[in-house]
What does this fold into?
Amino acid sequence: FNSLNHDMTLAEFKFIWYMEYSHRMWGRVVGLAYILPAAYFWRRGWLSRPLKGCVLALCGLVCFQGLLGWYMVKSGLEEKPDSYDIPRVSQYRLAAHLGSALVLYSASLWTGLSLLLPQHKLPETHQLLRLRQYAHGTTALIFLTALSGAFVAGLDAGLVYNSFPKMGERWIPDDLLAFSPTLRNIFENPTTVQFDHRILGIASVTAVTALYLFSRKIPLPRRTRMAVTSLLAIACIQ
It folds into this structure.
């Protein structure tokens, strides 16, 4: 307010305050939704030995996620010397916070589905092995694309170029490697960050499409085929 948003009203401040407050409260509710049932099931003796380790890891990840969120927000409150730019959190901490949330969500979903749905016993053919490896690679690519989106958000890089598929009038912008040393551009140059996110997004959609087409050549259980088809549909929507 003192350095930038002089015209902000109290009502406008309350709006952003309640957004932040709601996010924190929701995060704490999520934490309780993990820890309280876990403690109850543990006490009742309903958890197997492997599941106990999994539950401990998930509860630890929930707590870590909360600490990481605090660490991220803290970076937006630090005074930057000789800087009159818009106050914002560190894009590195934002990416870490998002990344840990995705890991927590994926691990929770994987654990839940493993308990609810019996694993299919399929013959380990060469094609099936290749499909599994390709699926894991596609997962890693999608995860990397999501993390690059956090850098776009943290740097407001989405505001730099608004055209697609070209960026302005060029396929490759002039200021793609404007920062020195060169490696800084990948994480701190808004133009490069947006360019990388575009390339990763296109690569992710291409990889998901290729995964779907490859899966059509292999006899798979109905549940697996539904999962691959749903993945393609969500990728297209995204």
